[in-house]
Amino acid sequence: MNPRADRADTLRRAGEAAAAAFPPLMAEAERIAATVAQGVHGRRRAGIGETFWEYRHHRPEDGAAAIDWRMSARTQHLFVRENEWEAANTVWLWRDGSASMQFSSSRNLPTKQDRAAVCLIAIAALLTRGGERVAVLGESLAPRAGQIGLERVSRRLALGEGGMLSVESPRMARHGVAVLASDFLDPPETWAARLARFAPLEAKGVLLRVVDPMEEDFPYTGRTRFEAPDGTDALLFGRAQEARKAYRKRWAAHGAALAALARRTGWTLLTHRTDRSPAQTVLAMHQALSGRV
Amino acid sequence: MLTLGPLAFAAPLALLGLLLLPVLWRLLRATPPPPKRAVFPPLRLLKDAPDDAETPHHAPWWLIVFRLGLAALVILALAQPVWRPGAPEDADRPLLLVIDDGWASAPGWREMRREGERRLGQAQSAGRLAALAFTAPDGTGGAGIRLSSAADARRRLDAAEPRPWPAARAAAAERIAAAQAAGDLPPGLTVVWISDGLDGPGTRELARVLNGLGDVTALTPPAARGALALGPPQPTAEGFTVPVLRAPTADTRAAAVVALGDDGRALARANTAFEPRSDRAEARLQLPLDLRNRVAAVRIEGAASAGAVQLTDDAWRRPRVGVIDAPGEDGQPLLSDLHYVQRAMEPHAELWRESLDTLIEADLSALVMVDAARVEDARIAAFVEDGGVLIRFAGPRLAARGDSLTPVRLREGGRLFGGALAWDEPQRLAPFADDSPFAGLQPDPEAAVRRQVLAEPGTATAERVWARLSDGTPLVTAERRGRGWIVLFHVTAGPDWSDLPLTGLYPQMLRRVLGLARGAAPAANGGAWSIETALDASGRLTDPPATARPVPAEAWDAARPGPRSPAGLWRVGAAAAALNLIGDGDTLTALPVDLPGVRVEGMDGVRELRFAGPFLAIALVLLALDALVALMLAGRLPRLPAWRGGGAAAALALGLIVLPAPDAGAQTGDDFAMRAALEVRFAFIRTGDSAIDARSAAGLRGLSAEVTRRSAIEPEEAMGVDVERDEILFFPLIYWPVTPDAPALSPVAAARVSAYLQSGGLILFDTQDAGAEAARAGGAHPGLARLLDSVDVPPLALVPPDHVLTRSFYLLQDFPGRWSGGRVWVEADPDGASRDGTSGVVIGAADWAAAWAIDERGQPLSPVEGGERQREMARRFGVNLAMYAMTGNYKADQVHVPALLERLGQ
């Protein structure tokens, strides 16, 4: 077994373990309330959507514009192409894969990226158990439901690239729900610009902020050279403890700015420290999503 | 050279370097340690945070001191300090001169005596009294140790010669202590001990006693001229090797060894050299057997000491012994009488195992005839008349009918003790009589005799009986015929009739018998060894000294060279034995320099202590420590959380102590053999592929369990063996999984496998690929072909329908394993081999191990092609195979029982 697949399995197991404690996440979306009664959201029918569902014979009330000429040309009959009705109860997950996410301050702690993947896999497991469809923003071709969906999403969350481009030009269905997991270390203005791209899609969701304890506590002392994780920048401090007070203030301000941004744009901001159990965060995420999906 | 008291510097200018230390101090203070590094993602938030930043940070003061010390140490080492304690001259004390006069002093005796004379001369001119003590006296008393005039002591020193035995320092210490107690030696002496430079028993006692008398100075000869000694020669195929010993020094040293014949002519010569610090060098002399037998002494050329000579004796001259080959004795070594005789005689004789016709032509001194080789031949009688020794062993044939070549007339039928139908207990050996050639050997209390042939009463006169059982019946008898001897052991040469061949006594008895092989009569004078020629201290053969006494035979083995038993050639009757100064395993070590209260000096001056080397070594260690400290300060040793300055020393100590990792996995030597042989075990060959090995182990676990459950065979846990390394002779059945890439066997392993098959072992070769066999399209399995190429495997055939394997326990016609329908091959015509018609190899591809395999809870481990029924069949095959391995063709006989009964008219 190769190490990549190993890693995906390990994270997947951790995610499932974190999810095990919660009831299946059943959607409460008003817009699809009518179809819930028919089973798993009853979406297996023709309707308004983007995905192909079936060809059917042309009926007089359809009008000429509905004819699928490509199919009709093959046979003697006229056909209409019907798409599957896509209710906007797909949850789009995204896990930041930038260099700063690869950081963990201690060998006993996971990297921020791994912890984010665990949380997202956990929530994906809960969603699929509840019949929802999940997809990885910018990486999945189509949202999938069920075990297969979880399988694919887990793999992408564990190993995927997590590029910032997926957030800056989101490709998702309208009225979708998104969960963006990142450390949100970029300036709040940058994130405001990114979230603005979701507004036309009427997409909302959860911002999962993953924080390493060292980043929050800043326990460094003495002569220390701080380096950016991508190695592009470095700062040398003669006495790191002297910078602690100022840093903590700025950290708090950064957090407050993010919270304000989330409030303003209608997202829910959840903060998770990697030295805490992911279960609390998944519970919070579960509750936040229960109100949205 | 700069001298500060006893301390001197050979290169004092280097001390100027110490002036640089203050500069270094400034430099070290100004250079801060490198910063810790930390990866920190929210770096942006840290920008422009307040900091006292780049003000240079002092290195910790202890680090500066440490580095200064390191630099000072290097500077001191470069100045090459020398410690030379001045000899305190004490001009008015009486002098006690202790002189080692053992064999080791012989080479340097002249220098030692000159030094002694110089000291005594000084004492004489100062009018001091002097006493003289030797450490290797001949025990005849002589002058006691007491103070007398120095001139008197000097006369005694002039007359002294080194002795051809080791210095007895413990005894000397006692005598000096006794003299002190008697008031002959007052305390407050100047003690000078002129030693031979070697350590030995009693050295410390002597040093302690001398120290109680006054200041002690021990003089040692220069290392390059220390005594050499010669160990006992060891015969090899081309000649012999002989170890040359010395007390280890740092120098190389060359030595030449020469082998001398009876007439003093050199027969061979070999050079050797000591490696630095080694105490042993092997000289390899090449000689054909005839010449080797003529070697009378081996000595180190140019080393005039008794320790540099090894005399040879009867044990060295190996007699040529013919062993009459017997038909049918070549298959199973442990069942063969000849095997035991050969193994017992090999160390002491050149053995020829041939037919009688060949042997009679050869010029032999002894013939060995076991019961199976029994033949009554006039040529043997003539051989004995002509001075040969015939060594015979009894057995069923001799018990059935006696012949003329026995020392005593034998009763027919022999005698059986301790059997199911006999009242007697098995008998033990009685102690050997003093006039027997075996006198002095200890009868082994373990050795029980269960059967023997009996001599007719009356013919077994006392002089003909050499060994008896505890009830007095003769065990070994002998008779002189013409100039030769006939010696009869009344038991078999193998362990059939008695345990004697399994004991250490057996080779010793045969060795004594071989001592007759030069036509000697057994000892007449009560078995005491007397000296014939003695070695003097310089290694020449001379008349024995007056102190020599005969040594009783029973004390001979414990005899060590000394005044009463000097080194030399000893005889009892015609048997000759050499008593040499150096025995097996002896080593020479230098006189320790740390003797209590003793100042050790070279014979030509004070021994200096130079410090440059140790100083530099310590500096190197400190430098390594410094690197660790630097790493620690840079925060690059994150693994140890409580890492502080104090911990550095502990970690360094840990780093210096490198514990040798014990090779726990190695199953070596006797442990392996005991484990394998003391219980019945199956074995499998390790392929090096852990998955296959684990499956083999599980398979044999399953087979062992099934066999135990179903039959009377109750094997212990199976063992994995490495055929390249382990002996496989112990196992009744070996499972050998063969992979396509199995390498060919090494010659050693191939010989091992051949010997295993030859001695009746059974190997199941399993290529485990019946499923893929068709893919080879009839081609050979590459691994199996390579493997069998190196082993001597007879022609193979498919298992015939009436093969024993099909009925040794269950009635089977096919032999499925994990796969079914595979073909199984056995030896085509096993009757020709010595294995009683059983095939030594079974070859198949059905992957039986997988079908047998169970886990610890007894659950099957692998799926089987045909389900549970096929698994049962595979197990039945396993049981049949185990039965076949244990009982051979026994079941083949049973197969014919109905036919036989029918023929008998039932």
List keywords for this structure.
heterodimer; A: 293 residues; alpha/beta; Rossmann fold; 2 domains; six-stranded mixed sheet; two-stranded antiparallel ribbon; 10 helices; 17% strand; B: 906 residues; 4 domains; seven-stranded mixed sheet; 28% helix; 21% strand
Outline the secondary-structure elements.
The complex is a heterodimer of chains A (293) and B (906).
Chain A: H1 3-19, H2 33-36, E1 52-57, H3 69-72, E2 79-83, E3 90-95, H4 112-129, E4 133-136, E5 144-145, H5 146-159, H6 165-168, E6 177-182, H7 188-196, E7 204-211, H8 213-217, E8 224-227, E9 234-237, H9 244-265, E10 268-273, H10 278-290
Parallel strand pairs in A: 3-4, 3-6, 6-7, 7-10
Antiparallel strand pairs in A: 1-2, 4-5, 8-9
Chain B: E1 2-4, E2 7-9, H1 21-30, E3 36-39, H2 43-46, H3 61-78, E4 81-83, E5 95-99, H4 109-126, E6 129-134, E7 148-149, H5 150-159, H6 169-181, E8 189-194, H7 203-211, E9 214-220, E10 228-230, E11 234-235, E12 239-246, E13 253-261, E14 266-274, E15 280-286, H8 289-293, E16 295-300, E17 309-311, E18 320-324, H9 337-345, E19 350-354, H10 356-361, E20 366-369, H11 378-385, E21 389-393, H12 396-400, E22 415-416, E23 427-428, E24 448-449, E25 451-452, E26 465-468, E27 474-481, E28 484-489, H13 505-514, E29 528-535, E30 541-542, E31 551-552, H14 553-556, E32 568-572, E33 575-579, E34 598-602, E35 609-610, H15 612-633, H16 645-656, H17 669-677, E36 681-685, H18 690-710, E37 716-721, E38 733-737, H19 747-758, E39 762-766, H20 782-790, E40 796-798, E41 825-827, E42 841-844, H21 848-852, H22 867-887, H23 890-895, H24 897-903
Parallel strand pairs in B: 5-6, 5-8, 8-9, 9-34, 18-19, 18-20, 20-21, 21-28, 36-37, 36-38, 38-39, 39-42
Antiparallel strand pairs in B: 1-2, 2-4, 4-35, 6-7, 10-12, 11-12, 12-15, 13-14, 13-16, 16-17, 22-25, 23-24, 26-27, 27-28, 29-30, 29-31, 29-32, 32-33, 40-41, 41-42
